[in-house]
């Protein structure tokens, strides 16, 4: 547990250092966003000193860490320097809801597709399932989202275009975000199932006269879960990253929208805090994934 905690702290500090360096390398001046390019040098210098932008990047990072620890972290630029933590607290549930919904969509689509392809290897069913998975990987989210909006929101008028007022607003962004992961998981499920079906315990189960359905789902599928659990933990971070684009397309009020808005406004404090929260969520899910190993595979529990 102590090793995991140290790894988590290193990951979060590393992410904070990297994003702080990148913010100072990105073209554009936060002062120009506030005052405009026609402002005088005196006004620019006064604003820069007022918000601490005249300090070195490491001094700005120390100020950020201090304010974050005391709960007094505010947006970088005046006149309305609002606290950042309430904004993050309001956006986080929306991003987690979208990510969990996208994960559910991907599992509902991928597991039956992969198991069916493995059970009927070499048949047209297998070829069709893998063709669908390749198409899902190839379709970028920034293209799929607008296409779904045009089809289901504008043409058919079945679902709303944007917002987060009801569960109907969640359908399109969750499907957009979960499609690529579903395609990848379907191929992964097929590969792990084919490996499990070649094991001796499956041969013994068949020799006992068990039905193909019991052999497939109770014996082969259970033992094929461990690699899938690993992939799900790693891909959660990919879903968080994909949520940034998806939230922007569907105007979903989550952390992705908050992050992109902060980048546009050169709000350094909000960018740092949002990236730090993304990193924490990713590290937490990876830790929970490690703990899930002992449930899926008792051998891991005995070794630990």
Automatic annotation (TrEMBL):
Predominant cellular place of this UniProt entry's protein: membrane
One record GO biological process: transmembrane transport
InterPro entries, A to Z: BPD_transp_1_N (IPR045621), MetI-like (IPR000515), MetI-like_sf (IPR035906)
Location in or out of the cell: Cell membrane
Keywords from the UniProt entry: Cell membrane, Membrane, Transmembrane, Transmembrane helix, Transport
Pfam families on file: BPD_transp_1, BPD_transp_1_N
Methyltransferase among keywords: no
Domain ABC transmembrane type-1: 92-289
Topology in membrane: Multi-pass membrane protein
One GO cellular component term noted in the UniProt record for this chain: plasma membrane
Transmembrane segments: 91-115, 127-154, 166-186, 225-245, 275-296
Classification via PANTHER family: DIPEPTIDE TRANSPORT SYSTEM PERMEASE PROTEIN DPPB-RELATED
Family designation: Belongs to the binding-protein-dependent transport system permease family.
Protein name (Swiss-Prot/TrEMBL): ABC transporter permease
Organism: Corallococcus carmarthensis
Lineage: Bacteria, Pseudomonadati, Myxococcota, Myxococcia, Myxococcales
């Amino acid at each position: 547990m102590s090793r995991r905690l140290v790894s988590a702290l290193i990951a979060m500090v590393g992410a904070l250092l990297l994003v702080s360096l990148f913010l100072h390398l990105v073209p554009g001046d936060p002062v120009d966003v506030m005052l405009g390019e026609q402002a005088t040098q005196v006004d620019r210098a006064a604003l820069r000193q007022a918000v601490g932008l005249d300090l070195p990047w490491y001094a700005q990072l120390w100020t950020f860490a201090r304010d974050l620890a005391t709960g007094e972290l505010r947006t970088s630029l005046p006149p309305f320097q609002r606290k950042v933590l309430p904004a993050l607290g309001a956006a986080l549930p929306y991003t987690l809801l979208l990510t969990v919904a996208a994960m559910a969509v991907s599992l509902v689509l991928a597991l039956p597709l992969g198991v069916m392809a493995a059970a009927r290897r070499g048949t047209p069913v297998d070829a069709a399932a893998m063709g669908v998975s390749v198409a899902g990987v190839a379709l970028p989210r920034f293209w799929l989202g607008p296409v779904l909006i045009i089809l289901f929101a504008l043409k058919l008028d079945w679902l709303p275009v944007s917002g987060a007022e009801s569960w109907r607003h969640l359908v399109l962004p969750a499907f957009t975000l979960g499609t690529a992961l579903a395609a990848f998981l379907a191929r992964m499920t097929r590969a792990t199932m084919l490996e499990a079906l070649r094991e001796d315990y499956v041969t013994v189960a068949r020799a006992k006269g068990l039905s193909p359905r019991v052999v497939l789902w109770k014996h082969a599928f259970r033992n094929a879960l461990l690699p899938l659990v690993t992939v799900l933990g790693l891909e959660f971070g990919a879903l968080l990253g994909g949520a940034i684009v998806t939230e922007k397309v569907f105007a979903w009020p989550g952390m992705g929208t908050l992050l992109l808005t902060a980048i546009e406004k050169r709000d350094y404090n909000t960018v740092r805090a949002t990236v730090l929260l993304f990193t924490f969520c990713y590290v937490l899910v990876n830790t929970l994934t490690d703990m899930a190993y002992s449930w899926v595979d008792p051998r891991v529990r005995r070794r630990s």
